[in-house]
Design a protein that fits this description.
Strand content: under 5%
Order of helices and strands: HEEHHHHHHHHHHHHHHHH
Helix content: 55-70%
Number of helices: 17
Number of strands: 2
Strand order of the largest sheet: 1-2
Structural class: mainly alpha
Radius of gyration: 32 Å
């Protein structure tokens, strides 16, 4: 009896205290599927055929990984994200001001604000930055949006991405990231307005043929994506599994998808601003440490000073906007017919000015046409494209050599300009047939 009892206790001890691989190390184990005893050295149950090792090992590993992820998440995600909300509200506030200045017209919610409104609120225009030294237009565009869809997409992205960056790095660093990457995106947009380089589809992915108003928070948003991308790679050896999958290379599909969308819509999407923000965010993340769970933030005073400096720069930039604010308030909601009539009138005058400049070197109406083009709203995206084409054509015509005073009065026009002018007239006439608003009989 004693011997038999002793053998039974030893067997139970071996079964209960066995390792996940006990069945291949000379010890029997129990099948976790049907409960039958599996002999020593057997990897599968003879009754049901289930593996006796892999599920247990995977379960233990998953349990460890899940616990690590939960501990890390609790330590990080409980932190506040007040400046994400602050920037979101600021963007909404600026948009409401722009809508008010446009006469609260519902048309502008989807189609977009006229250029005069965008420029008045600080959109980036190269000519104004270079010629008039309006440097604040390198800062303010990250708070200015073209239409309601543009605003909602960017604010949703900020709401989804911003809290992660702010919680991982702290509010002070988040503010610096947002402002610096936003400026980086605008500077990249400024540098890539190169009509001579925008010669084909691939070149136009980066370079722009027209100096048109550029605005939006997407450069700063791509900057936050760049921060999280480098964060996941830089700290991959210390992050739990859940965070490794969410950041770092896990963001590559999102980045590639957005760049593909930018390639498809390169006529209306500022891809240079996106890439400028992405690279500047990645560069910042390479040199800036994040706040580890339970770790006190080092150099807190330095980052607080930088945070205040960034906020002061934004405040000063919008103060300069108010000093130069010159958008006339639209007193009534413009109808589509009114917008179309005003646009057609300006385009007709601009084409006459272009013809006079190309064929006769007469530039007397050039400045007036350019000014009207910059302050006229387009009825639709194709109309905006035609408007930018006539603007570029006028600029090229103004840059052609003037005839010598002592030379013949009649000069041969530049064939390239003539060809471009005729192609523009053809496209404009075709557009008129479909774009003219229908009137009630």
């Amino acid at each position: 009896m004693l011997c038999s009892r002793s053998i039974t206790l030893v067997s139970l001890y071996c079964l209960s205290d066995s390792s996940p691989n006990s069945n291949v190390s000379g010890r029997p184990t129990l099948c976790r599927n049907c409960g039958a005893i599996v002999g020593a050295g057997a990897a599968n149950c003879a009754v049901c055929g289930a593996s006796t090792t892999a599920p247990q090992l995977i379960e233990q590993r998953n349990s460890i990984h899940d616990n690590d992820t939960l501990r890390f998440a609790r330590a990080v995600l409980d932190r506040p994200y007040k400046f994400t909300i602050t920037f979101l509200i600021a963007n909404l506030f600026v948009y409401l001001l722009m809508w008010d200045s446009s006469g609260l017209s519902n048309l502008f919610l989807t189609q977009g604000f006229p250029n005069e409104i965008l420029i008045a609120y600080g959109a980036k225009v190269n000519q104004l930055v270079a010629r008039d030294h309006e440097w604040w237009r390198l800062v303010t565009p990250m708070f200015v949006h073209v239409n309601l869809i543009h605003l909602l997409v960017n604010m949703y992205s900020l709401w989804m991405i911003g809290p992660y960056v702010e919680k991982l790095y702290g509010s002070a660093k988040f503010v610096v990231f947002w402002v610096v990457t936003g400026i980086g995106g605008v500077v990249a947009s400024y540098l890539t307005v190169q009509p001579s380089l925008a010669t084909n589809t691939f070149a136009r992915f980066i370079f722009k043929a027209f100096d048109e108003p550029s605005a939006g928070a997407s450069g700063a948003l791509f900057g936050l994506v760049g921060v999280l991308f480098v964060f996941g790679i830089k700290y991959r050896n210390e992050l739990p599994e859940g965070f490794k999958r969410a950041f770092g290379t896990g963001l590559l599909p999102i980045i590639v998808l957005n760049l593909f969308i930018g390639f498809i819509g390169s006529r209306s999407i500022d891809n240079a601003a996106h890439l400028g923000g992405l690279f500047s965010g990645a560069a910042l993340a390479l040199v800036v440490q994040y706040r580890r769970p339970g770790e006190t933030q080092g150099n807190a005073i330095v980052w607080r000073v930088l945070q205040v400096a960034m906020l002061a720069l934004v405040a000063l930039s919008f103060f300069k906007v108010t000093q130069h604010f010159n958008a006339p308030r639209l007193q009534h909601q413009l109808t589509q017919a009114e917008i179309f009539d005003a646009y057609a009138n300006v385009m007709n005058k601009a084409q006459f000015s272009a013809a006079a400049a190309i064929y006769q070197h007469d530039y007397s109406e050039m400045n007036a046409s350019l000014q009207m083009i910059d302050t006229t709203m387009s009825p639709d995206p194709k109309g905006e494209e035609l408007k930018q084409r006539i603007r570029a054509l006028l600029a090229k015509a103004a840059a052609q050599p003037s005839p010598s005073p002592d030379g013949p009065k009649q000069t041969t026009p530049d064939p390239k300009l003539v060809q471009e002018y005729m192609a523009l007239r053809k496209d404009y006439d075709a557009w008129l047939k479909t774009a003219a608003p229908k009137t009630d009989q």
